[in-house]
Design brief:
The chain contains six helices and no strands. By secondary structure, it is mostly helical.
Length: about 150
């Protein structure tokens, strides 16, 4: 009898742990600027992999809409002053994962690399969660509506 009770309790504990891991995986499987855990995971990843070009404060490079002499556009800001928030999450994720060149017309000049093999999918989502967490609520609300369409 005691063995059955222990077996049942162990099964419940393992099932509960499995559910918690599954729910965490689901939470990390989406971009969520309201999730403090994802935002905190994303902040140091942004600093390490993105800030060199896009700025420590997400401000981008100066004169980011004017091509450099080599034909590349400067890194755009990821704060509310830029155009990042105009793009769907799926598109932003793909641009980070695979780089701009994969989606640009032939001959397009870009310095934006892909991060396949550098950042996991969950880490990319965390970076995007961090970036989006810095945007004003008005922009976040507009994006939420855009993502529903």
């Amino acid at each position: 009898m005691v063995r059955k009770v222990v077996t049942v309790l162990l099964g419940l504990c393992l099932g509960g742990a499995g559910l918690a891991v599954w729910q965490l995986g689901r939470a990390e499987a989406r971009i969520d600027p309201a999730n403090p855990r994802l935002v905190e995971l994303g902040r140091p990843l942004y600093v390490k992999h993105c800030a060199q070009c896009h700025g420590a404060n997400l401000e981008g490079e100066a004169d980011w809409q004017t091509r450099k002499p080599n034909g590349e556009l400067p890194a755009p800001p990821h704060d509310a002053s830029g155009h990042t928030w105009h793009h769907a999450n799926e598109q932003l994720f793909a641009l980070i994962k695979h780089g701009v060149a994969r989606f640009a017309p032939p001959g397009y000049k870009t310095a934006m690399p892909g991060y396949v093999g550098v950042l996991s999918d969950s880490e990319i989502r965390a970076v995007l969660s961090y970036i989006q967490s810095t945007w004003p609520q008005e922009i976040r609300d507009r994006r939420a509506a855009m993502e529903q369409n």
